[in-house]
Write the structure tokens for this entry.
Amino acid sequence: MLTIRVIPCLDVRDGRVVKGVQFQGLRDAGSPWELGAAYEAQGADELVILDVSATPQGRENQVDTVQKVRALLSIPLTVGGGVRRADDAGRLLDAGADKVGINTAAVHNPQIITDIAERYGRQCTVVAIDAARVEGGWEVVVLSGKERPGLDAVAWAREAAERGAGEILLTSWDRDGTRSGYDLELIAAVAAAVGVPIIASGGAAHPDHLLEALRAGADAVLAASIFHDGDYTVGEVKRLLAQGGLEVRL
């Protein structure tokens, strides 16, 4: 049995961690470097930082934030937001990221997936997919849900993997911040379509939700609110997952 990963997510805007519902109504949740260090101490396997205002504001990712977090962190770090070309990914990797997440830019220019994978390796290339449920399946949404380019989410995940994505960060737009549980059907559909690891995101309220997502086909689970609000520590979640029969790093 492969060891599963529990990954806290820091959505960052203007150097502060924020959290909302369906990417809207963002509230302050603290300092990214302080939270990152705390989550590593709790036993987080990795950390994801998403600069949620970079793409809407048409600017690059805040490299200084990445550098400050990296200085306090020894676990793997994935950074996304504002990546429009392979050079942008290189800057984030130079700043201390281990992997780079791409979302909107990949939808608009799928070649960027291959460019990053060929230059820096598939292991560095994470394609983030925000999926909204529609009749008959799910469609891709970008720009924090403001744009729907008409892409089938499962087909897009398959294409992203074929183009060089080493991992898929799969977020249910409908479930984001709602604490109603992950979209298990979405996870299962994408897991059946791709041969790369899937990080499930969107909707966690308690460890049972994470357990359900992993059993549905996810290789890792990403969560924010339950950690930011102090409902559970990462260590508590991992112990409960272990009690559920999953292999975790304790």
Observations:
- The longest helix spans residues 32-42.
- Confidence is low (pLDDT under 50) at residues 55-59.
